[in-house]
Give the backbone structure.
Amino acid sequence: MIVRTRFAPSPTGPLHIGGVRTALYAYLFAKQHKGQFILRIEDTDQNRYVEGAEEYIIEALTWCNIIPDEGVSFGGSHEPYRQSERKTKGYYQQYAEQLIASGHAYYAFDKTEELDAARKQAEAEGNQGWQYDSKTRSAMQNALTLSADEVQIRITKDEAYVIRLKVDPDQHITFNDMIRGDVSFESNIIDDKVLIKADGMPTYHLAHIVDDILMEITHAIRGEEWLPSSPAHVLIYQYLGLADKMPRYAHLPLLLKPEGNGKLSKRDGDRLGFPVFPLEWKDPATGEVSSGYREKGYYAQGFVNMLAFLGWNPGTEKEIFSMDELIESFTFERVHKAGARFDPEKAKWFNEQYLRMQEDADLAQRFIPVIKEQLKISDHRSSVEYAAAAVSLLKDRVHFENEFYEKGRYLFEVPTTYDEKVIAKRWNPITAKFLNKLTEVYSTQTTFDASTCKLSFENLATENQIKPGDVLQLFRVILSGQASGVDLFGMVELLGKEEVLTRIKNAISALPKDVGN
RNA sequence: GGCCCGUUCGUCUAGGGGUCUAGGACAUCUCCCUUUCACGGAGGAAACACGGGUUCGAUUCCCGUACGGGCUACCA
């Protein structure tokens, strides 16, 4: 048997990170078993269709490197992969009719208002959970209560109808979930679910089953919110006589809000200051923009790694996993059963780990365009050598690559202001004199690397009976304008003799002459 | 309300009858490194929801309670 899993989102908006995790687990499982991962678009609700959502889903999965073997925009031997198109081919109707023929489904003509009225009346009688089922259907307008002629007349008169599943009462339904083990339900609590809506579209319940059968899905991985309706799905397979075709189910724990109650929702992200979407999304209706991990500067790999660990762990202390390593290690047995509160801090931590793993040369390649565009520099400072050296000084003190520019611009630009506190404390005739002498020493120096410069700096300080500590930070401010930053003599080496001398000269002329006298 | 699923440090989790003085990671605190800021290193504080059972022995198994989550649509 070839393992085939699918990710089947609805194009109702951007995919949130919970959805990405579901896709990831389905992908990891399929790949581990040398199987296939399919992307199916479940667009059966025409009212909720959102322009651009499908493209977003595809782009997001691609960014995460969760690449489907088959699916919308990826092709495959089970086309089409969009449910609206499959509906046109009559796939769902065919199965619905089979259920009707075998007595497991029926036509129902009740209007929305009538259903609402039935619910309201039950509520008035102190019964909160009215549902269309074996107890109530006899009071409704359907093929079980109307004569066959009447049903035929209504259908030919184009009266709106739905097709409902006829759930047999008093059945025990048990199935084995890959994460939860045996789960059981009573059929009495399952309602006669609508299979085909009045607009002719199938509901999720019918559509996903028909497609999973036709697409030969072996393992259905989805969110925990589906657990309550899964017994109905088990029944549909039974009624279809295809119980042997039923995939194994895995119901994933939900992702919860970082604080407060409830599951992580689209609104939480920007409210709490972190993205809930892999990519930035602009709502076509409202124009509202929601931030994305990609745009915030997260690495796709770190993002995927973080997501994998939300509810799963390998049972070892290793935390950094490449996609290949995840494929190798992932198992549903090790997926935690309880919902996981999402922690944006941990997401950042994963990103830092990946940042430190980057090669300086690669970081430099990506930084150079920024140097050229933002700093308008195009000389030796925009070379790979210079950028790589700058990046290596900067690397450990940023969380994201995109901080190199803000945190390191003094490595490229002469400072125009100087940290006032340090100047007030350290700038005086003695230190000014020291800096003048330092200029002389440095200008005669033939080698200008970090250790040589550091040594001559310290020697000069000692000769002048100055504690290095009294001038070290001043020197930093003179060179960078800032009181803290990258390794001081590392910066000296990077800037080079000429630039260092210029910056000292600049500072001396820019700073007040009579301080301390 | 009903049904289902769950419950180990603040958070993500390991552990599934004695090895638990309950392990790791994030966050937090202290110290070291660094006469900067980070990184890094060392250490600290921090949890088995509660009550019954079963057992020689329960964090681990069973039941109940509490709490959390989900579902309860012609949405997925």
